[in-house]
């Protein structure tokens, strides 16, 4: 799982190391685990920007992520006819697996099962984690997870199955999750998005504003289609 099997470079750390040295360190740390990819996450976006040309020269793929906090009222209210409910484990797991199968790696059922299991594990360890979603014929077709500790909340793993997109379901689940986070006492609720992908524009319309950025550099496994 790329977001778990990675090396984090914290602010103020590793600033004297170039991309080549960091790549060696990531290989030293991850290769013994037998993972077929390498990933480094740079918390300081300015440092990540300086390293980007070096990682590009090494053939690593780059992504920039934006942390967005709910600061404004949403531009549009959720549809009144869309009901968001709390999902039990099995309903959510089936929906998440169905979503994963729409991804480039989703043809591999072993990978799908591993990712569902990994999500189960971090949910079990996360404070107050709840799965929310929209049902159609008793199965979830749009989902997200909301977690928090009474001070800070996070909305994670927002997904809508392809046949149900374009109906405002993601807007509904995110706004419901935000309301749940605030009802739990969270003073700050945030979400993370790929800075180059369209969901960040949806979140902006829902009242989320950028707090900051960080970067990830990945050496893809052989034959991987990329992202």
CATH topology of the largest domain: Aminopeptidase
Q: Biggest sheet, open or closed, and with what strands and sense?
A: 9 strands, mixed
Straight-line N-to-C gap: 15 Å
Structural class: alpha+beta
Number of strands: 9
Corresponding CATH superfamily of the largest domain: Gcn5-related N-acetyltransferase (GNAT)
Helix proportion: 25-40%
Radius of gyration: 18 Å
Q: Describe the strand arrangement of the main beta sheet, using strand numbers.
A: 1-2-9-3-8-7-6-5-4
* Low-confidence parts: none
Order of helices and strands: EHEHEEHHEEEHEHE
Structural descriptors:
single chain; 227 residues; alpha+beta; Aminopeptidase; nine-stranded mixed β-sheet; globular
Task: Tell me what you see in this structure.
The protein is an alpha+beta fold and 227 residues long. It has two domains: 7-65 and 215-219, no CATH class; 77-189, Aminopeptidase, CATH 3.40.630.30. Helices cover 33% and strands 29% of the residues. It has six helices and nine strands; from the N terminus they run βαβαββααβββαβαβ. The chain has helices at 19-30, 45-57, 89-100, 109-125, 169-183, 199-205, and strands at residues 7-9, 38-42, 61-70, 85-86, 130-136, 139-148, 152-160, 188-194, 208-219. It has a nine-stranded mixed β-sheet, with helices on both faces. Helix 5 links the parallel strand 7 (152-160) and strand 8 (188-194). Helix 3 packs across helix 4 (109-125). It starts with 6 loop residues before the first strand and ends in an 8-residue tail after the last strand. The model has no long low-confidence stretch (mean pLDDT 92).
């Amino acid at each position: 799982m790329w977001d778990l099997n990675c090396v984090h470079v914290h602010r103020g750390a590793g600033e004297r190391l170039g991309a080549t040295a960091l790549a060696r360190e990531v290989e030293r740390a991850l290769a013994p685990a037998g993972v077929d990819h390498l990933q480094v996450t740079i918390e300081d976006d300015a440092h990540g920007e300086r390293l980007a040309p070096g990682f590009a020269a090494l053939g690593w793929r780059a992504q920039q992520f934006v942390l967005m906090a709910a600061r404004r009222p949403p531009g549009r209210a959720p549809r009144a006819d869309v009901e968001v409910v709390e999902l039990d484990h099995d309903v959510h797991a089936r929906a998440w697996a169905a979503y994963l199968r729409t991804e480039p790696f989703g043809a591999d059922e072993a990978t799908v099962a591993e990712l569902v299991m990994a999500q189960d594990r971090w949910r079990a360890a996360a404070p107050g984690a709840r799965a929310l979603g929209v049902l159609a014929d008793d199965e979830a077709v749009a989902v997200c997870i909301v977690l928090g500790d009474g001070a800070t909340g996070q909305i994670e793993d927002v997904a809508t199955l392809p046949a149900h997109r374009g109906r405002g379901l993601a807007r509904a689940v995110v706004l419901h999750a935000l309301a749940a986070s605030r009802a739990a006492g969270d003073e700050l609720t945030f979400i993370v998005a790929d800075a180059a992908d369209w969901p960040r524009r949806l979140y902006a319309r829902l009242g989320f504003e950028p707090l900051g950025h960080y970067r990830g550099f990945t050496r893809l496994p052989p034959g991987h289609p990329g992202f």
